[in-house]
Design brief:
The structure holds two protein chains of two kinds. Chain A has helices at residues 2-31, 39-76, 85-123, 126-132, 137-174, 180-190, 193-219, 224-256. Chain A is mainly α. Chain B is α/β, with parallel strands linked by helices. Chain B has helices at 46-54, 79-83, 101-105, 107-112, 117-130, 146-159, 176-191, 203-209, 227-231, 236-242, 249-261, and strands spanning 6-17, 20-31, 35-40, 61-66, 69-70, 86-89, 164-168, 195-200, 212-217, 220-225. In chain B, the strands form two sheets. Chain B has a six-stranded mixed β-sheet with strand order 6-7-8-3-9-10, with helices on both faces. In chain B, strands 2-1-4-5 form a four-stranded antiparallel β-sheet, covered by helices on one side. In chain B, helix 7 links the parallel strand 7 (164-168) and strand 8 (195-200). In chain B, helix 5 packs across helix 6 (146-159). The longest helix of chain B is centred in the C-terminal third of the chain and has 16 residues, at 176-191. The chains are: A mainly alpha, B alpha/beta. Chain A binds chain B through residues 36, 120-121, 124-126, 128-136, and chain B through 51, 54-56, 76-77, 79-81, 83-84, 86-88, 90-92, 94-97, 107-108, 111-112, 160.
């Protein structure tokens, strides 16, 4: 009986979290179209998220492209198809690795940053102080961060994709002796319009996940400074799992489309 | 009870938080221009009452009216309009870390965008002058001491032009000089006709500023009346309760004697 009650309590607890998260997402998204628009705060967040994350996504893209070129060449060599390695790099980077790896890196840097900042504000009563001042904290803090993530994460993913292809080209040129003309011709030839759509829709969805998980864990923090640490960890773990899960479902969805 | 219009009215309010009933059948009124002090031990539900008045918590039962408007079941999106007439000084001041003292104090005015920058700057400076901290205007909250942060919190409440100010432990953790400075500020605001609700352990502050005092014990009201009535009270249960709330017996006798003299 005790075990049953424990399971029931846990299920109800998770249901409450899902309900609260959904309500926060709906309110935050609806605020995108309602004044006030907090332009200064949004630009500040775009700078923090976009410019601040540029270095890590450049490194992520560079090494991902280089590793793909090395591994791809090993697989293609028995068939004498090493020259087509750029096709493998461009499609896998644009469709999957660019969006997912960039999102995971950004979740580590930006998502945890949002969670810890909002968690600190929650435990020091700054969120309540905002309410007391007549400001809706969801509008001022969550909506501005969501808008910044929705715009900057697709842009950062484009940078990641581009740098990954450059990384692949460096390896192809220096180690595999593939001519630059062939590398870039096959790289772009392999890409279809649908790949570019997938490559932009996924980072927008991941941006939504990173912003909302960070905001939810931040706003729901309890328990002082220990709670801030817990929320930061929860944000990273939850965002990573949701990114990987949503990547699977988005891939399935795009494959099902005609 | 005062004949003036009640600014705040709580009627038979009950509240449960995390499966624990923290307030039982609370009824109180604060008349416009009055200063009400809520006394009680830690965990007695004092701060919770402030949060109910601000609309940060929703009561399980009962009715809460602020400035004639029933906020008991008011949705969050309508509350900011009610809160425009209120301000709260939080226990740790809750200044916004990322903003300067100037931006903290003028926060509400800049958000409302009803006044020009010059006028707001003037209001901010005058508010800081009132609390004696004009020189800190360009500092960040992290550069201020605890007492200064609380005074900036009061300046923020003043600058907002609120007719109702709620204070959560305004003198807690302060040295006697800073506590006295805050006590004087509250008296000044009382003379200006601002309605104030002060939650405190500090009996000296309570007896200095209160028009009426409310005593809470484990979420229940055990006394409500004037400071004079409290000072003259012989009820051993209340006297016994006040000692753990921070009042040594000799201090109690001194306060009671002073109230009787007055």
């Amino acid at each position: 009986m005790t075990g049953f009650l424990g399971v029931k309590t846990a299920v109800l607890g998770y249901a409450a979290v899902v309900q609260e998260f959904t309500e926060l997402c709906a309110a935050t998204f609806a605020n995108l179209f309602r004044p006030p628009f907090y332009a200064r705060e949004t630009v500040l967040q775009m700078d923090r998220i976009g410019v601040g994350s540029l270095f890590i996504v450049v490194l992520t893209g560079l090494f991902t492209g280089m590793v793909l070129a090395l591994q791809g060449a090993v697989q293609l060599e028995p068939y004498g198809a090493t020259i087509y390695v750029s096709r493998l790099i461009s499609t896998s980077v644009v469709r999957e690795l660019g969006p997912v790896l960039a999102a995971l890196m950004i979740a580590g840097r930006v998502g945890t940053g949002i969670a810890s900042e909002l968690a600190s504000m929650t435990v020091t009563e700054q969120i309540d102080a905002l309410r007391a001042e007549g400001t809706d904290p969801v509008h001022k803090l969550a909506t501005t961060r969501l808008l910044a993530c929705l715009t900057m994460i697709p842009l950062l993913t484009i940078v990641t994709d581009g740098i990954a292809m450059v990384g692949g080209w460096l390896v192809a040129r220096l180690y595999l002796a593939i001519d630059s003309y062939f590398y870039w011709t096959w790289a772009f030839d392999a890409l279809r319009g649908r790949d570019l759509v997938i490559g932009l829709v996924k980072p927008a969805v991941f941006g939504f996940v990173i912003a909302m998980v960070g905001c939810y864990t931040g706003f729901s923090t309890k328990g002082g400074t220990v709670g801030v640490g817990t929320s930061t960890t929860r944000s990273m773990v939850s965002a990573s799992i949701l990114i990987l899960a949503s990547d699977f479902f988005l891939t399935k969805l795009f494959m099902a489309l005609p | 009870m005062s004949d003036r219009k009640p600014m705040i009215r709580l009627q038979n309010v009950h509240l449960t938080l995390d499966d624990k009933q923290v307030l039982h059948d609370i009824s109180l009124e604060v008349a416009a221009g009055d200063t009400k002090v809520i006394l009680g031990g830690s965990g007695s539900g004092k701060t919770t009452i402030l949060r109910l008045i601000l609309g940060l918590y929703k009561a399980d039962r009962g009715r809460i009216t602020v400035d004639g408007q029933d906020i008991t079941r008011m949705p969050e999106r309508r509350l900011p309009a009610i809160r425009q007439n209120m301000a709260m000084v939080f226990q740790n001041a809750a200044l916004f870390d990322s903003l300067t003292v100037r931006e903290n104090v003028g926060y509400r005015l800049w958000e409302q965008r009803k006044l020009s920058d010059d006028v707001i700057e003037d209001v901010v400076r005058r508010s800081l002058q009132f609390v004696g901290l004009e020189e800190t205007i360009d500092k960040m909250p992290g550069d201020l001491s605890g007492g200064m942060r609380k005074r900036v919190g009061i300046a923020r409440a003043l600058a907002s032009g609120a007719r109702l100010i709620l204070y959560d432990e305004p003198t807690a953790g302060l040295d006697p000089i800073n506590a006295f400075a805050i006590c004087k500020l509250l008296k000044c605001l009382k003379e200006k006709g601002v309605t104030q609700v002060v939650v405190t352990h500090d009996l000296d502050l309570a007896f200095h500023v209160a028009d009426r005092i409310l005593l809470l014990q484990e979420g229940r009201i055990v006394f409500q009346g004037t400071p004079r009535e409290l000072a003259g009270l012989q009820d051993p249960a209340i006297r016994g309760f006040l000692d753990p709330a921070g009042l040594p017996a000799e201090e109690w006798n001194r306060l009671a004697g002073r109230m009787a003299d007055e």
